[in-house]
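Standup notes
- HV: blocked on the assembly model, inputs below
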Amino acid sequence: MSDLMSLMIPQGFRFAAATAGLKASGRPDFAVIVADETASAAALYTANRVCAAPLVVDREHMAATGGRVRVVAINAGNANCATGQVGIDAAKRVCQAAAERFGCRAEEVFPCSTGIIGVPLDAEKLVRALGTIEVRLGVEDFHAAAQAILTTDTVEKTAFVRVMIDGAEVRIAGLCKGSGMIHPQLVPPALPHATMLAYVMTDAAVEPAALQAMLNAAAERSFNRISVDGDTSTNDTVLVLASGASGVTVTAANMEFQAALEQVMVSLARQIVADGEGVSHVVELQIEGAATEADAVRVAKAIAHSPLVKTAWAGSDPNWGRLMAAIGYSGAAVEPERVEIDFGQLAICRHGGRAAEMDVAAAHAYLKQAEFTVTVRLGVGTARCTFWTTDLTAEYVRINADYST
Amino acid sequence: MSDLMSLMIPQGFRFAAATAGLKASGRPDFAVIVADETASAAALYTANRVCAAPLVVDREHMAATGGRVRVVAINAGNANCATGQVGIDAAKRVCQAAAERFGCRAEEVFPCSTGIIGVPLDAEKLVRALGTIEVRLGVEDFHAAAQAILTTDTVEKTAFVRVMIDGAEVRIAGLCKGSGMIHPQLVPPALPHATMLAYVMTDAAVEPAALQAMLNAAAERSFNRISVDGDTSTNDTVLVLASGASGVTVTAANMEFQAALEQVMVSLARQIVADGEGVSHVVELQIEGAATEADAVRVAKAIAHSPLVKTAWAGSDPNWGRLMAAIGYSGAAVEPERVEIDFGQLAICRHGGRAAEMDVAAAHAYLKQAEFTVTVRLGVGTARCTFWTTDLTAEYVRINADYST
């Protein structure tokens, strides 16, 4: 890692990765983040009612500590989900061993898993790898950790921001994984709630309650606004840790910090979409003129989950009638004759019908780009949202039809 | 048509097909059903708020006549949707011309369209074809009509039942089309509501209100229980016509007729799924032990719409973890540790975890069949449903990514 990069990593955290032997590929599959001192923590979990064992343990631990985390232990290659009490025991075994290794309470360990569902997790593989983890811990292994948590991802996903608060520098950095089964529906810990895994570290000092409030707001405009395939995972987790090592205290009212946190989370969320399974086109949806923000999100999700819209995008096909159908069944308040659709700056639909100036060849050329924007104006209100999604390709089918993933 | 087949067609109806020139392929694209005398009629339409022009006209006509239809005029190759007032005018032009040709009121004509959305319909092509239609009208053209309404369908879809009521024979026959954009959400005419088009004829005498009640009940267990791609069309329509030509009067309380009607509609619905775009596996979902029937349907739809589940089926992959994830995010009341899953007679999941007796090789072999059954027992109640769906293949993507369908 360059000296420049190390200046982007929040102070007070060390990272390591190891090969525990869970991935069939034999690649690194175990990442650990250790805070020098117990950090303030806030988390969001998947809304899926079938929820992996580590999430059960995480909620228990966060409740026990009031939002304090020392060690984050993340394995890929096995989701430890639908594994019953055996799965809970396995997650707790890893916590106990990590607590002993790093000198903290088991409740200060935050376990996470991603990979196949329904196969028992061999905790001893992770326990045995803790020795290697301890030796390797350092700031420079940030990227190694970001790589070890990947599954079907093709690239590591990280984001960094530095922000001046009260004349002093605060750093925020994030790492995450996610490519398929991406439609996070993150809810606060009180409810069960994505296999997107995301970790955001900051060296600001922030109390857990304030951190949670800022996480909730930022998640709503980032991870909760993306979808690759509409499948909400059993394991989705977002964790934010604040070490306080910068010496800068941040309160919930601090808009600079909130904006910087959201910037990191939006960057991570967009990286997940861009690396979505089999994706050949990344689409930014701008839904405007909705009666409510919830309606804007309904329209975005109906479009983002329509196989007919997504396959048209795969072929750069300007078949906007499929968009109209999805808008119509979204459940949002819609007056069809008011609907307008643009592809980038190109007028496609006006008054619910084909725009007089629609140029099919230009529309087709625009949709050939790797990234493009589709704007829908409903014309019934002033609410809006931005949402990021993908096309649906034959490659997606190949990736997921392989027996046995 | 064999003499035997002609004995299956309800009395009082004639059929014809012609090539109006709407399909690029040059194949027949216009089908007409004419009742010898004005028939009792009941209809259901798509719940999509973007709703094609013919459906607007159909509702208006059914309201004006109190549920009486003489002529059904169905074109393929153009959906006449998102076409504004021009689309309404085009549908009415066809009705007017058909009314003059067949000697009835324009309001007794029931127009239907299927094909591309957002392209103006050239009504004159249909009007010109009415002469050919009139010459060809007969019982024997039932199959020609069933073929003319097809779009991406690969086979014609028909069903026939004869039932004895009060010692006399009543015939029910249906024809339909549908392959993609299949997730009918049919609602009674009071609400806007699939591009599945289905037409059921009977020679029983049934009053429109009774016919509507029986149609509503039968649709809930047939067309509203299928999904190919989860996209609810702007044009879905189911129309039932009763000629009374058998001389047998049927009331709403007649369970034999209700059962026979449902049998025809379930047969047609299953044929649509079996001919779904790119489908290589047809899946019957049996959802049992739900708290409510609505919850059972929620679980079925979550499974039927999950790209990860559907691509696993394409690969005959017994990855039941994806089923658990879909069950979990369905919104139904679920207690994960009570969930049981069977593939056919094979135990896959017990107590929310892998069944001890699960045999991966046997499960893989079972899922290689062209048709198979997945049973989910939620264990939280006694409600249930049956639902028919498909896998998601690379061929589906190819069919729908072609620029420009």
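- HV (later): unblocked. The longest strand of chain A covers residues 30-46. Chain A has a mean pLDDT of 92.
- Next: hand off to the docking folks.
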